[in-house]
From TrEMBL:
Its cofactor is [4Fe-4S] cluster. One of its GO terms (molecular function) is metal ion binding. It comes from Craterilacuibacter sinensis. GO terms for biological process: methylation; porphyrin-containing compound biosynthetic process. This is Heme anaerobic degradation radical SAM methyltransferase ChuW/HutW. SUPFAM superfamilies: Radical SAM enzymes (SSF102114). GO terms for cellular component: cytoplasm.
Length: 439
C-alpha cells in the first residue's frame, strides 16, 4: 500500500458550513415579538426537537464544548427549569404539526438521576406533538448509564441510545480522559444493545494522536461485533482551543495524523462496513440493514428541518429564523419560567433556501444538479472535482465517491463560498454542540 502521507490531496484543510452561515442577527429588541410570531404559527409536520443537558463529569481533552461540571443539586434544579421551559412553550405554541425525532444531547444527558431522566422524558412526551413512530434518542456515556437509568428511559419511551466511545484502545482512551478501558467499553455496548432491545449506536473517532491504522482497524472490528444498530465515524478535528493541543506540544501525545492518513482511515471504515453488509446512511453514519436504525435526527437537522430547542446552549430554527437558548447556566436558571431564555436570533438570507437542501443531499452522497443555483459558477467546480475523483457526474446528479464523502463538508463550504463569497464564518455559532460530534 502506498504511503498515505505522500498522497496529493484536493484540499489543504477540512472545513464545514457552520450552522448560522450567511444569516443576519436580529436585534435583541426584536426577539420578543418575533418569538411570539413563531409560537403562534402551526408547527410543520415532521419537525425535530433538541434538548441540551450541559453537564460533564470531566473535561475530555479532545472536546471543545465542555461548559459545566457535574453537580447533582444543579442538575435537579436544571431539570426543573427545563421542564418549566417545555411547559411555557407548550402553553403558547399553536396546535398541530408533529415531531419525527427528539434528541437529548449534551454534555451528558445520562448524568441525570434516573428520576430526573424519567420526568424529563415524560414532560417531553406531554408537551410535544411527537409522532407515533418518533425516534427518541438519549445520548450518554458508559460511566453513568446504569441499568436503573436505562430502565427509566425505556419506561418513558426512549427507543434509541447514542454512546460516545471514540476508541477501544485503552492507552489512547486513558490519555483522552476516558475512565474505562476499551474492553469494558465494548462489554457495556454489547450489554446495552441486548438489554435494552432498542437501537444502540456508538461514536468512533479516527485520526486521533497515537491511533495507527492497525488500531483503527481493531476499533472497527470490535464495534462491528457488538450487536449495535449503527456507528458514527468522525475525523478528529485538532481545533486550536482543545486541551489536547497543549498535550501534544508538551509531548504527552504524539502528533495527530495528517489529512492523508485520516482519508486512508476513512477508506478503511467504508470498506469494512461494506464487507459486513452495513448501509452508509450518511457520510459519517453506518447502519445494519435490519437493525432498525433510521438516523432520522442527524439527517434531518443537516437538511435544515424545523427544530424546537430547549435547555441551556440548545439551538433551533423555525420559519427561516434560527435561535439559540442562553448557554450560561446561571443566567438560564435565573430566567423567569414564563420567559424563553433566548441568547440569539438570526434570519436566513433571502435566496438561501438551497443551502440546507444541498447540504442534506451531500450528506447522503448524492445531490441533484437542480439543487444548485447559478450553474455557470458551480458546474466548472463540479467538473474539476470529477477530474480529481471526488464525484461522478451524469445529466441530473452528482454522486460522491468514498473520497468525495470524506471531503463532503469541505465541498459544501466551497460551493457556498463560490455562490455567496460575501458571507463569512464570523457569523457562525454552534447551535447544539454534541460533545462527540467533530465534523
Amino acid at each position: 500500500m502506498a504511503d498515505a502521507s505522500s498522497a496529493v490531496l484536493p484540499f489543504s484543510t477540512r472545513r464545514a458550513l457552520m450552522p448560522m452561515w450567511g444569516q443576519s442577527p436580529l436585534a435583541p429588541s426584536q426577539w420578543p415579538e418575533r418569538w411570539s410570531q413563531l409560537q403562534a404559527a402551526t408547527l410543520p409536520d415532521n419537525a425535530l426537537a433538541y434538548v441540551h443537558i450541559p453537564f460533564c463529569a470531566n473535561h475530555c481533552v479532545f472536546c471543545g464544548f465542555y461548559r459545566n461540571g457535574w453537580n447533582p443539586e444543579s442538575a435537579r434544579r436544571y431539570t426543573d427549569r427545563l421542564i418549566a421551559e417545555l411547559e411555557a412553550d407548550a402553553a403558547r405554541r399553536a396546535p398541530g404539526g408533529s415531531i419525527q425525532a427528539l434528541y437529548l444531547g449534551g454534555g451528558t444527558p445520562t448524568l441525570l438521576a434516573a428520576e430526573d431522566l424519567a420526568r424529563l422524558l415524560d414532560a417531553l412526551r406531554a408537551t410535544l406533538p411527537l409522532s407515533d413512530d418518533c425516534e427518541i434518542t438519549v445520548e450518554g456515556r458508559i460511566s453513568h448509564f446504569t441499568p436503573e437509568k436505562v430502565d427509566a428511559c425505556l419506561a418513558s419511551g426512549a427507543n434509541r441510545f447514542s454512546i460516545g466511545v471514540q476508541t477501544f484502545d485503552s492507552a489512547i482512551r486513558r490519555r483522552l480522559g476516558r475512565k474505562h478501558p476499551g474492553d469494558e467499553a465494548a462489554d457495556y455496548l454489547a450489554w446495552l444493545a441486548a438489554y435494552s432491545g432498542q437501537v444502540v449506536v456508538a461514536d468512533l473517532i479516527f485520526g486521533l494522536p497515537g491511533q495507527s491504522e492497525a488500531i483503527w482497524r481493531r476499533d472497527l472490528e470490535i464495534a462491528l461485533g457488538l450487536g449495535l444498530a449503527g456507528l458514527d465515524v468522525y475525523a478528529f478535528n485538532l481545533m486550536p482551543q482543545l486541551p489536547i493541543v497543549r498535550m501534544i506540544e508538551k509531548g504527552a501525545f504524539p502528533p495527530a495524523p495528517g489529512l492523508a492518513e485520516q482519508l486512508q482511515q476513512y477508506r478503511i471504515a467504508c470498506q469494512l462496513f461494506a464487507d459486513a453488509g452495513w448501509a452508509q446512511l450518511s457520510n459519517s453514519h453506518f447502519g445494519t440493514p435490519d437493525g432498525g436504525e433510521r438516523n432520522r435526527y442527524n439527517l434531518a437537522i443537516k437538511s435544515g428541518a424545523p427544530c424546537l430547542a430547549f435547555g441551556a446552549g440548545a439551538g433551533g430554527n423555525l420559519a427561516g429564523i434560527s435561535y439559540a437558548v442562553e448557554p450560561d447556566l446561571a443566567r438560564y436558571l435565573e430566567t423567569p419560567s414564563a420567559q424563553k431564555p433566548l441568547a440569539r436570533m438570526a434570519r436566513a438570507a433571502t435566496g438561501n433556501h438551497w443551502l440546507p437542501v444541498l447540504q442534506g443531499e451531500i450528506e447522503t452522497g448524492c445531490f441533484r444538479l437542480a439543487a444548485l443555483p447559478r450553474p455557470e459558477l458551480t458546474l466548472p467546480l463540479l467538473q474539476h472535482w470529477a477530474g480529481q475523483g471526488l464525484l461522478w457526474l451524469d445529466d441530473s446528479h452528482a454522486r460522491l465517491t468514498t473520497e468525495g464523502r470524506f471531503w463532503g463538508p469541505t465541498m459544501m463550504r466551497q460551493l457556498a463560498d463560490t455562490l455567496q463569497p460575501a458571507n463569512h464564518a464570523g457569523h457562525a455559532v454552534a447551535l447544539h454542540p454534541h460533545c462527540t460530534r467533530k465534523d
